[in-house]
């Protein structure tokens, strides 16, 4: 799958399934490009009128480029969405993107969303926290992760418990590859 950025975006938007194979294949090609054109269009999607556009923009930005060349420009966009967005699907994608970016500057946003009423958002926070807490882990991040480990939603609690075990190993190894990518 190749083609102009706009065509790939339209292909991804046409797949109504947020976990759809066609959608994620288009996203993977866009992320691999890692260029300014893709970043610019993804950034515009983050301000889109529809939830699907905003989720797509975030999903692209979360892993744009092999060495994350736009991380410094992406983090403010994601932090803005974390503070202003109301749709849980967008917030979930923002948290997964924070986890992929592995940048401690996202920690305050992740902690704030860790107590969100929607379980999918808390799940995203449980995924992101071990990846953004730093080494040694930030105490406030650890507290949030511990609270999520006792979440009434089993998936949230399980992911947070896994995160606690991963954080326990941060002192002896890198946090790279800390867990599978939730879909």
Give your account of this protein's structure:
- The chain has 183 residues and is mostly helical.
- The protein has two domains: 75 residues, Leucine-rich Repeat Variant, CATH 1.25.10; 76 residues, Leucine-rich Repeat Variant.
- It is 66% helix and 0% strand.
- The protein has ten helices and no strands.
- The longest helix has 15 residues.
- It starts with a helix and ends in a 15-residue tail after the last helix.
Question: Could you outline the blueprint of secondary structure elements for this entry?
Answer:
Blueprint (H helix, E strand, L loop, with lengths): L4 H10 L6 H13 L2 H11 L4 H12 L8 H14 L3 H14 L5 H7 L5 H14 L6 H11 L4 H15 L15
Mean residue pLDDT: 91
CATH class placement of the largest domain: Mainly Alpha
Number of beta strands: 0
Count of helical segments? Answer: 10
- How many domains comprise the coordinates? 2
Shape: globular
Protein name: HEAT repeat domain-containing protein
Pfam families: HEAT_2 (PF13646)
InterPro entries: ARM-like, ARM-type_fold
């Amino acid at each position: 799958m190749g083609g102009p950025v706009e065509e790939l975006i339209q292909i991804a938007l046409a797949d109504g399934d947020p976990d759809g194979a066609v959608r994620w294949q288009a996203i993977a090609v866009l992320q691999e490009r890692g260029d300014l054109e893709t970043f610019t269009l993804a950034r515009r999607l983050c301000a889109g009128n529809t939830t699907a556009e905003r989720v797509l923009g975030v999903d692209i930005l979360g892993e744009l480029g092999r060495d994350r060349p736009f991380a410094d420009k992406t983090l403010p966009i994601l932090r803005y969405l974390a503070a202003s967005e109301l749709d849980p699907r967008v917030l979930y994608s923002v948290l997964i993107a924070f986890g992929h970016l592995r940048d401690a500057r996202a920690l305050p946003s992740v902690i704030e969303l860790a107590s969100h009423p929607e379980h999918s958002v808390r799940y995203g926070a449980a995924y992101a926290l071990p990846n953004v807490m730093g080494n040694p882990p930030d105490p406030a991040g650890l507290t949030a992760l511990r609270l999520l480990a006792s979440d009434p939603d089993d998936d949230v609690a399980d992911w947070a418990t896994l995160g606690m075990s991963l954080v326990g190993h941060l002192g002896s190894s890198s946090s790279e590859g800390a867990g599978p990518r939730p879909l």
